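Researcher: Batch entry, complex prediction.
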Amino acid sequence: MGIAERKERDKLSMRQAVLDAAMELYHEKGIEALTLRAVAERIEFSPATIYLYFKDKDEIVFHLYSMAFAKFYQKQLEVNSIADPLERLRQGCRDYIEWGVQNPKLYDLMFILEVPMNVIAEENCQDIGKTSFAELQNLMVECIAADKLKIKDPELAAIMCWNMIHGITSLLIKKRIVIPHEAVPQMTNAVLDTFFVLVAK
Amino acid sequence: MGIAERKERDKLSMRQAVLDAAMELYHEKGIEALTLRAVAERIEFSPATIYLYFKDKDEIVFHLYSMAFAKFYQKQLEVNSIADPLERLRQGCRDYIEWGVQNPKLYDLMFILEVPMNVIAEENCQDIGKTSFAELQNLMVECIAADKLKIKDPELAAIMCWNMIHGITSLLIKKRIVIPHEAVPQMTNAVLDTFFVLVAK
Amino acid sequence: MGIAERKERDKLSMRQAVLDAAMELYHEKGIEALTLRAVAERIEFSPATIYLYFKDKDEIVFHLYSMAFAKFYQKQLEVNSIADPLERLRQGCRDYIEWGVQNPKLYDLMFILEVPMNVIAEENCQDIGKTSFAELQNLMVECIAADKLKIKDPELAAIMCWNMIHGITSLLIKKRIVIPHEAVPQMTNAVLDTFFVLVAK
Amino acid sequence: MGIAERKERDKLSMRQAVLDAAMELYHEKGIEALTLRAVAERIEFSPATIYLYFKDKDEIVFHLYSMAFAKFYQKQLEVNSIADPLERLRQGCRDYIEWGVQNPKLYDLMFILEVPMNVIAEENCQDIGKTSFAELQNLMVECIAADKLKIKDPELAAIMCWNMIHGITSLLIKKRIVIPHEAVPQMTNAVLDTFFVLVAK
DNA sequence: AATGAATGAGAGTTCATTCAT
DNA sequence: AATGAATGAACTCTCATTCAT
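Model: Structure tokens for the complex:
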């Protein structure tokens, strides 16, 4: 029993070690430097060993995706303690942008990069994305029910909102809006405040 | 004198030939198939020759980026004949999204791909992107002057607007919003109409 | 005693399981897909376990070779019921070619593939091939004794015969003689008839 | 003119150097040791360089085939000076077997090995093979016209003959007939003499 | 001005085999 | 008896780039 458990733990921790190394590499040097050889070297195993724990590179990249989404999703959940739906929405948006700007590489992975992935992995990723969007839409339903929004269609509201926050996040990350690093929160606030002035009743 | 000119012209046309070939390749087969080998083969020169006209591959990619912006900018100019600034803005936004959706590869190049920005500094090229944004901001100045907008800060207005249209465009292109192809204009309209209802006086 | 026997039996059945799996794999996917990994997976043991029963991959391949010969030899025996030695020879030749053409993979294994013959010496296995040839030679002795052949040296007669039937079989299998599938028996007959007209008294 | 010629010569000699090295490797260590890396190392170039002269490994292997066939074909031609067709046939057969036994690796390449080749190469090889067979058939036509053979159908005669000589050659090469090295000519003679006694008028 | 020739570096992947447990 | 874990050594092939000519 104990032995089986330990083996299972070892196996998991090896997988985790591979994924951690991969994530580090991706952060440090970008997606193009994310090679199995480099991962292997970092964990001080041979490249062949990685294939004992993952089918191929795609599987690893897919897990990086999942990890990014998990982290992101966790951040999103933090906002649930806020009772007022509009306030929850506002804080959620703020968190979204902030998280994206602070984790630009992960945001890239989630919403921007075109990473070679097999179909299953791709579908799976899209599913996670859809869940996340559904969450946003539900929040809109609440806001509309509480008569807080000028927009009455929750789907449209969700899209408008996502456009806005994804727009600014990705423009900031891609440095198409170039502002000093410390000015980011201020800009974020200005944009969000304006958005909510416009959209909220 | 004549000779020097012809040489200059030859030099320019060779550069253009390289860039055209590169752009074609990028369109036909994507960024990963854009190799100097392939470019050289297409223009029927040797790979080494390309290095006589461009410092390295990055410089070429950067020029593709500029070319995309130029095309885009040209589209943006078409709207100038519309007198009413708000209407001009609205049409400009519509054009923006439409152009992006119809030229996803170019849009990728402009706003999504990792463009070797270091070249900008080295080559002292001016960032067309900024010009484009300045144009948008000027339009906002006009709208505000005509008292058409609820937002009074033209820079903020420009950013709000850009967020929105870049947001939806990139989500559509990256298929994070998945809708049938023919439903795109309808969705675009809904989003824009809502935006203008919210933002216009 | 009983235990030792059972162990021996287990050992044998395990060896047989490995060999069966290997033979299946070879048939299904060819010699290049015959990997120890795949064999192990098929019998649901680990690759390492195979090394408890076989020295290395070569030993396994050699046993496949022996198995092919055993099957072939069994076919050869069927002919023994024919009383007349010349007729027995003729039918044996026909069977030989037919069997080869119908079991090209096994024939490959027996006569064409590079079999690790070093194993033979090391393992002191007897070469079934030689037995098979000896059988043929004995048959020639009979034919000569019955004064049915123009050739008087049984070894030479055996070699002549084997040359002929191996020649056509391998040329057919390797598609160096290319004829429609259904024309094979006809060609076989023509060749054999001619051979026997030439060689028989 | 001189320059272009020299370049062409250089190019050809580089190709030849690659092919020679490949052929050497194949002879020394077999088809499985024939790797591009090893070829590159032998000619003291980088593996990448080989790709400047050959599309891929298949093209190299195909040329080895061609070289083997060319050598073989050349040997076959030597016999043409013999006027008497039957004597020409007999000597041709002797040469065939002798050449095969002395160049077992090449014979393998031509008639036995299953080498991964693309379709074009395969067809091309078969063409060479067919030419060679056609030659044999023409010789049979001559022999029959001179009323030297018991067999009257030239195609059948050619096949009978090829079966015989390919049979013994491949059995000798594959060591299925195991005789001391020095006994080979004697055995060859015995087999051929017998064959011609049987088949010639 | 143009290029033929060359390469170092590197990619993902597979295999037979070993050995401590 | 059985194996999980590990690996060294390969494999073919591609790319951006350099440099003597």
